[in-house]
Amino acid sequence: MADALTLRTMTRSEVDFAVGLAADEGWNPGLSDAGCFHAADPEGFFIAELDGRPVGVISAVRYGGGFGFVGLYIMVPEARGKGYGIRLWRHAMAHLEGCNVGLDAVTEQEATYRRDGFTSYYRSARYEGVGGGETPEGVTALDGVDFERIAAYDRCCFPGEREDFLRAWLKAEGARGFGVLDGDRLTGFGVIRPCVSGYKIGPLFADDGDVAERLYSALIATIPGEPFYLDVIEPNAAAMELAGRHALKEIFVTVRMYTGGEPAMEKDRIFGVTSFELG
């Protein structure tokens, strides 16, 4: 049966299928995530087929600067435990040869990834809240901010260049974004997007807790009464304080892991992770 397994790059429409599997698993993806994900690296999404039937998916996105990220690793239940998953994994990792590869692992799988050469660096926690409140002063709609400023800020907070992804993410249907400017200087920005259930904030990048607070308030003011989710890295104490100050409920945690050491990025500016699937 293993010889009947086919591994290949997904088409754009098959990325929709992969995100649908993520929804079935309860990962609550964004409604426009598939198009944005594909824009990051059209060659970085892989599907396993058994006798022409899809049985597994994975993303292995190559960013600029020699950085890659693995996510969306899902086998359909009836194909698990048969060796198909590891073949798909190895196929995807070959796409990232030469990269420092990152992923966000659920804690139950941390040991598995360690055996495959990944090292754990820090935890992230997903928090849940309910939207509402007033838009604070001093924030501006992100579509009025020059994209190059946004991309430059993003490069401080992410290990690789991802401008194609970022352009798609900011323009995704239903997404709302805000920035804070100090004169001509961007001091932070954030995005909120509709998901299968509620909304997710990500990224939320800011110079300090005060800027993050303003952006957070502006984002949740757009969704009164709706549930939202924010993924916070534990090394950023100010981000953890923001979650605590607003009495957000912790849902689950992941572990950030890398194959080639922790890359340089300003974690004290990361108040909300962009996506557990793509980093």
From TrEMBL:
Keyword Transferase assigned to the entry: answer is yes
Q: Where are the transmembrane segments?
A: none
Gene3D superfamilies xrefs: 3.40.630.30, 3.40.630.90
GO molecular function list: acyltransferase activity, transferring groups other than amino-acyl groups
InterPro entries membership = Acyl/Acetyltrans_Enzymes, Acyl_CoA_acyltransferase, GNAT_dom, YitH/HolE_GNAT
A Pfam family hit: Acetyltransf_18
Domain N-acetyltransferase intervals? 5-142
UniProt entry keywords in alphabetical sequence:
Transferase
Q: Which PANTHER family match?
A: SLL0310 PROTEIN
Protein name as catalogued: GNAT family N-acetyltransferase
